[in-house]
Amino acid sequence: MSEAIKLFIEDARAVSIEETAKILGLKFSGKRHEHAQPCPNCGGTDTFAFNTAKEKWNCRAGGIGGNDGIGMAAHCADLDVRRRDGFLEACSIVLDRDIPDEGERESDEDRAARLQRLEQRRLQNEADATARSDSQADFREKERAKARGIIKASIVLCSVAAPPQGRHYLRHRCNGFPDASWLRVGANVPYWHGQDERGGPLELFSGPAMVASFIGPGLVEIGCHITWINLNEPPKFRPKLFGLTRDGIAAGLVEWAFGDAPPPDVDVADGLYEPLPAKKMRGSKKGGLIPIAGHPEARRWVGGEGIENGVAFGIWEGWRQDTFYFAAGDLGNLTGPAEPSSRFAHPMLKKPDAKGVARAVMVQGPVPKRDQGVEDAMWVADHVAELVLLADGDSEPVMTAAAMARARKRHARPGRLIPIVWPRAGYDFSRMAVEAGE
Q1: Taking a C-beta distance cutoff of 8 angstroms, is the pair 212, 148 a contact?
Q2: Does residue 89 sit in the same domain as residue 159?
Q3: Phi and psi at residue 176, to the nearest 5°
Q4: Which of 49, 75, 135, 281 is 20 to 30 Å from 412 by CA-CA measure?
Q5: How many CA atoms lie within 13 A of 268 on its CB side?
Q6: SS3 call for 289
Q7: Which residues, at least 6 apart from 253, have a Cβ–Cβ distance to it below 8 Å?
Q8: 69, 98, 121: which is the final residue of a domain?
Q9: Which uninterrupted H or E stretch holds 147?
Q10: Cα(26)–Cα(152) distance, integer angstroms
Q11: What are φ and ψ of residue 384, in 5° steps?
């Protein structure tokens, strides 16, 4: 091996995974170190990933991986590094320069055949991605149709004809309810969990529930939010539900049935049964929001994460006529994703790492992710001049504060006021409203 070839190889080995990924045109996902994506060679959705901190790459579809740029380039370009010409061609890619004259090269015929294979795989990968996208779109539209069906089957909560559980629930949780037609209630809304013997969805129970629409721009219904109600279960007044886990199935236990006594605490602690949420969403929520009272044409909007807090604050304000009250559904939809570089160590919270060493919990930062899509957080109309964001005082304060600061920056526009209103420490607005009513 000539000195020129030795130096060529050593230079190639010194090229980092990050630099190789840039040369190959791979996608950087926005996460700090790990970047998952479709494999340029094998296809898929997130089958390929590289890690710039660990200097590693992996393709689950091809069952291959490594810890240098040469191997990663060879896999992406369909080169065989076990052959001398394939190895040197991979070195040439990561260095972005030609192989020295005395080095082996693949023949013109081999290169043409390799490029043809890559092109055929690219076309097949595009076809597979289109088919997956169409399938996901069909599924999403079916879910939206189911959500609209649930909404249509329910009755406006404030109407005399509506089942009273919805109004009673909000009286118990918020000390009142809005005189508006957005929120609805159903007398017997099915709760689906698990599968029956034929693999179909299993109805755990059917009961009263508050139903709320998720709407997108143009007031299009894209999904629904369901809160099941049990007025005999204070303080949340929601039913206690349990599901059998995989470990529970393996242990030979039977599904918990609504109306049964709760599973033994030891079975829950051992992971044989799990508590189930009494709130669910059907259809889509991404980029949408839940209207509570008023109309989106208003120039002042007030809302936070949950429906109950929005209702409680609206009652405290006396349901201002110039205001649209809403809920985002969850904190992520309110704030949008964070820029990875803005993460910071929690000043107090720690958790053990894989070696048992206590390390600070990392918190998503206050800076919105760059280049995020419009649907990565709830929509806010351009005409809104004041956006009042409601924080939760009973959530972890540092994480919540960072999230609310991120929401303010995410929704900021020239001339728009975005005050963040906090309840009493350790409370949310719902609990404050109940105590005020008492």
Answers
A1: no
A2: no
A3: 155, -175
A4: 281
A5: 12
A6: strand
A7: 244, 267, 272, 273
A8: 121
A9: helix 108-153
A10: 46
A11: -65, 125
Indicate if 90 and 174 belong to the same structural domain: no
pLDDT per position as a tens digit, 352-398: 887 888 989 999 999 999 888 888 999 999 999 999 999 998 889 99
28 and 80 Cβ atoms separated by less than 8 Å: no
Which whole number is the average pLDDT over 305-319? 96
- 364, with CB counted inside 10 A (0-12, 13-18, 19+), is buried
Q: How many CB atoms sit inside 10 A of residue 97's CB?
A: 12
CA 21 centroid distance within chain: 26
The answer to the question of residue 267 being in a domain is no
User: Cβ(316)–Cβ(429) under 8 Å?
Assistant: yes
Residue 138 has pLDDT above 90, yes or no: no
First to last CA, the chain: 88
Average pLDDT over residues 415-420: 97
Angle at 61 between CA 57 and CA 62, to 5 degrees: 70
Number of compact structural domains in the chain:
2
Clarify whether residues 185 and 291 are in a common domain.
yes
* 99 and 172 share one domain: no
Q: What CATH number should be reported for the domain holding residue 117?
A: 3.90.580
Q: How confident is the model at residue 290 (pLDDT cuts 50, 70, 90)?
A: very high
pLDDT in tens, 245-258: 989 999 999 889 88
Q: Can you give the residue range of the structural domain that contains 307?
A: 153-239+278-437
Residue 403 CA, distance from chain mean position: 15
In a domain, 128, yes or no: no
- In angstroms, the CA 26 to CA 93 distance is 13
Q: What is the pLDDT of residue 356?
A: 85
The residue-averaged pLDDT of 56-81 equals 92
Do 305 and 358 share a domain, yes or no?
yes
Asked whether residue 104 is domain-assigned, the answer is yes
Task: Determine, yes or no, domain membership for 25.
Answer: yes
Of 272, 239, 237, nearest to 253 by C-alpha is 272
